[in-house]
Protein: DUF2779 domain-containing protein
Amino acid sequence: MKPLTKSRFKTALECPNKLFFTSKKEYANNKSEDPFLQALASGGFQVEALARLHYPNGIFIDTENYEYEKAVQLTQEALKQENVVIYEAAFQFEGLFIRTDIIVKTGNTIKLIEVKAKSFNPNEDHNFVGARGGLVSSWKSYLFDLAFQKYVAQKAFPDFKFEAYLLMADKTKKAAIDGLNQLFRIPNNGNPRTDIIKRVNSINEIGNSVLSETNVDNIVNDIIRDKYKYYENLNFEEAITTFKNAYQEDRYLNWPIQFSACKNCEFKATPEQEKEGMLSGFKHCFSKQLNWTENEFNKPNAMQIWNFRGKNLMEENRLLMEQITEEDINIKPEAGRMSPSERQWIQVEKAINKDTSIYVEKESLKQEMDKWKFPLHFIDFETSTVALPFTAGRKPYEQVAFQFSHHTYNEDGTIEHQSQYINNTPGEFPNFIFARALQAAIGKDNGTIFKFATHENTIINAIISQLEESNETDKNELITFLKTISIANKNHAQPWEGDRNMVDLCKVVKDYYYNPLTKGSNSIKAVLPASLNTSEFLKAKYSQPIGNINLSSHNFPANHVWLQLEEESVINPYKTLPPLFDNWEETDLEENVSDMENIADGGAALTAYAKLQYVDMTPNERDEITKGLLKYCELDTLAMVMIYEHFLHDIINKPN
Structure:
């Protein structure tokens, strides 16, 4: 039996061609799901455990993923009861198979409840259907998933009446007790699906739950009746039949390729993977549909252009950078900086000409750098959004800041890993301790403070809001300090901009500097190795042990060397660190958890933090994860220092 499951259905909605690659081990897949890490990072296992307390005494259909018939038989047996709650009930119909999170059978009526590790505000009018009448894009795949579940269950049991619900974290609710997020834990080496340790047995023990149920049956019915379509040329039942037949017949659907979907396709093989014999689904599609050969695949293409939408290029088969014109980019210059469109065109020109030299707006960069005051402070935060709150009065999915690293660059050129903070204590809400440690670290002088991207400012805004609602005795002092280093976001009624508002080094890169070795990426994990490969200064300095170059460190020995070469090329320093999880590169983890609730970056760190919080482990294991986190965070701020040094020594102080 090779059924179309709900996860395969969701994959097909992203792009029907993916069905051909999805279960084939020979195709590279950079989104290979690890259910343990996914459940850990999102807090999904906790939300699921709390959801079951809402519907207690359920029958758990405890079978392996591949035991389709057994799961269906156990479900059918349980459904013979007049009234019953079932966890992970299984339904199949003509080659379709689903498992539901929770069903509640009362007579002939069955509530089909999908538990989501997401949050919503029940008081908002347009959570799922927008003001213009279309499905809200961020919910579309979840609602189609639920429609697929209802469709299969209803077909399997036409005499029952199924109603579709979502059960999720409610943004308007606050925890009634301390330690809510410590009530559901995973034993060491345990399975978050089957081995959860529950420290409560009744919803009454936790007071007010932070989950709420919402009826989405009308929306789901409208999807099944084709009021809402995922693809305009395919109705709901047609989609199911098309996907099922193609999957079972192992047939490539040859679905028209789309710019954004192909740009983000997970079935791309790296050169290293191809050397190992792995195949690329991306290449399969482009060779079939556009007749591309290795010649085209080896040329730079439009999907590599930073922040580029590529309208009509697919239809016109103009996807190579050499086919892109200035009109495609629609260049709009801006005074004193590279505009986004200018940056795109610079990327295209350099790629076509195989020009790896950097492009710099030197005078503008110098004017910017002349404003900076010593000592320079480089900071990086690691954060999480925790599904279930730490303490009474907190809401689900609030921002939690558990770690920072801080480097200083002094006027005499000396560099210190000045301070660091990490909280690895289960059940302790860290934000206010974090804020005090941050004040102690960077509050003693008026030196310029650097962040990379906007995340740190977002977190400081969140902590200010949390402090305003708190009873902390030093809250006014902390708020005053935090406002001096930040700017108000739109959630705050009273605007502010601190006199030491953090300088965004990522914005500095975007405005004044382009390095072709980044291939358009502005991630620090791309800018750092590109800078190291380009900079003669960095190569000379960081090829020496850190003890020889007056660089202090909290986490690396004096003989540690940051710059290592492989075939004349600098190895990305992030790849030289030990992985935080077995079999997972840190950069792979970023890809895998980045689409979860409120997660933009730092996927590896927040997953590790979740493990520290919710998994029972030995002190040695806890210590190893903590050490790993400290190393990664230290490299993040050292990377910022290196980028600054590259600007200073290879650009500003270098004669024209």
